[in-house]
Structure formats: C-alpha cells, structure tokens
Amino acid sequence: MGILNVTPDSFSDGGVADTPSLAIRKGVLLASYGADIVDVGGESTRPNAQRVTAVEEMRRVIPVIAALASEGITVSVDTMRADVARAAVHAGATIVNDVSGGLADPAMASAVAGLGVPYVAMHWRGHSRAMNTFAVYDDVVADVVTELEHRVEALVEAGISEHRLVLDPGLGFAKTAEHNWALLSHLDRILALGRPVLVGASRKSFLGSVVARIEAEIPAPRDRDDLTGAVTALAAAAGARCIRVHDARSTRRAVAVAHAWTTARHPA
Ligand code: PMM
Asked: Which residue, of 11, 22, 56, 132, is most buried by count of CB atoms within 10 Å of its CB?
C-alpha cells in the first residue's frame, strides 16, 4: 500500500503532493513502482496535528481519488470520517482505511457496512493532539489485542462483514518506541485474531531511534526507507498481508526477499 498524503503537514512527506496534479502524478508513480493499493489521505495524523474540516478533507482527496481510480488504480481512502469515506467510495475508492477503527466518528461503522467495502481498523486511543498521553499499557501486546477484539465485535455488530475487516496494530499511535517493537515482534498474536494484518511502520520515528544506538545522528524521515525495508521484510515474513509505505519500490523488493525466505522454508 503506497502512501499518498494530500496534506501540507504530514510528518515525512507533507507538502510533496498538496496540489491535485502533483498528487495524481505521485499516485501513478507509486502504482508503477509496484504498490497494489494507493492510500489517499487528506488529514495529517502526526503527533499534535490539528484536525481539518470534512469539507477541506474532501476538497483535498476526492479529485485525486477520482483521477487515480479512472486510471484503473486500486485506491483506499485514509479517513476517520464517515462522510469522507462515503464520498471517496462514490469517487472510486474501494477500501476504507480508518486509523481510529471507527472510534472517531460514530457514523463510520454503519457507513462502511452500507458501502460494502473492505475496512482497515487500526488500534487507536485518541486524536493526535493528545495521543501520547494514552501510551500507557499493562501489557501492550495483550492490551492492543483485546482492544482490537472489541473493535471487531462492535464493527461486526454495526453490520460490517467479518471477512471485510483488516486489522492494524497502529504503530506510533499512542505507542512509545518500545511499544511498537513489542507489537512488531508479536505480530503472531495479532494474526491470531484471524484477520489479515496491515503494518504501517514507514519512516516513523521509532525506526530512527534504533539508529541512535549505532550512529551519531538520527536519520530524517526521508532517510529511513532502508530501515522501513528491514521492518517490511520481517513483518511480511511474519505474516503481515499489507505494508503501508512511502517508498513502493524498496518495499516491493523487501517483500520479494521475505517471500523467497518463507517459500524456501515451506516449499509447495
Ligand atoms: N499511519 C499513518 C497514517 N495512516 N493508516 C494505517 N492503517 N496504519 C498506519 O500505521 C497509519 C495510517 C501516519 O503515517 P503517515 O503520516 O506517514 O501517513
């Protein structure tokens, strides 16, 4: 899944694609480099980000989604709002990616049920401006698994069929670096919930913190694609079905390495 943030303020690529024509070009490029899905978002979720209005979010994403879908590209919409999800699917998106797992907008679950599209439900505890204060767990893996289980129950109750649900541990959302590594190293516990798992580690700051132990400087977000590739290979080998990333080409290669590794271990 290639990331297309149509925002002026995302943490690693904000401003790169904040006009529709630049965004469309970047989306086409992501697909040509091997992204199976292009994930279009119009609201930054970086720590301390302020919310934008639904009207502004739609103004940013809808023309881009319509153009990419008309090129035959599979598009997901990264939104916490039911109205934006609905407009995006009408414009050609075929997947809804909600970092709040339906918690930010009480109308989201029934809207997605009505739209009948796959839904990525990420583990989430609160909006970006306050999320760091929620990074408190007894046992992060057990707590995230339990909270995701509760989301699955509520989403199915609202009418989303279980086979359309994809789960995501929500790396960096109300999580410290230690929490993120614990979740990545226990992906099997999230996979045991029985749904496909999406991992979104791309360029996040916990990757930079690893380098601080071996190098003098923490790499800037744009200089973290090799670290993202290492996590991608490990996550794919551990069974993640989808990896959400900024750089599609290096990810495609990392996934190919994971595939070669796992198929050599379990030949058909
Ligand atoms: N991370 C971000 C945005 N959307 N969606 C899912 N499903 N999982 C994530 O981890 C996730 C997401 C924030 O990262 P960005 O600013 O690089 O898009």
From this structure: 11
State the closest ligand 1 atom to the C-alpha of 120, by its place in the atom list counted from 1.
Answer: 7
**Mean pLDDT across 173-197:** 97
Asked if residues 104 and 81 have their Cβ atoms less than 8 Å apart, the reply is yes
Taking each helix axis from N to C end, the angle separating 248-265 and 225-238, rounded to the nearest 10 degrees, works out to 30
pLDDT (tens digit per residue) in 23-71: 999 999 999 999 999 999 999 887 777 889 999 999 999 999 999 999 9
26 is catalytic: no
204 is annotated as an active-site residue: yes
Distance CA 183, CA 48 (A): 23
Residue 108 Cβ inside 6 Å of ligand 1? The answer reads no
